[in-house]
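Section 5: illustrative case.
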């Protein structure tokens, strides 16, 4: 599968989903506006996990974030469950 390039991402104009391989996907809403997700399989279920916006996360950092997330999932850490726990702690702390 072809990989994206930093210049290629910068020049994308057509909204859609663009795969970088190994589950990393750019969901482009408009030129320069989009978000990164990584698609993984955990416990027999396909899961799409958000990594951040295109504005905040360049291609290289998105690849690193996806790699780290896949590593955590392989180690048995349910990343989505951990995020939910962190969100609950924040909500509780704000109350």
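Designed sequence:
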């Amino acid at each position: 599968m072809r990989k994206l390039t930093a210049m290629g991402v910068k020049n994308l104009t057509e909204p859609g989903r663009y795969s970088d391989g190994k589950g990393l996907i750019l969901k482009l809403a408009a030129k320069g506006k989009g978000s990164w997700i990584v698609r993984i399989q955990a416990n027999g279920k396909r899961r799409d996990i958000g990594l951040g916006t295109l504005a905040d996360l360049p291609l290289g950092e998105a690849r690193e974030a996806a790699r780290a997330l896949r590593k955590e999932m392989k180690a048995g850490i349910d990343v989505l469950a951990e995020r939910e726990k962190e969100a609950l702690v924040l909500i509780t702390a704000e109350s």
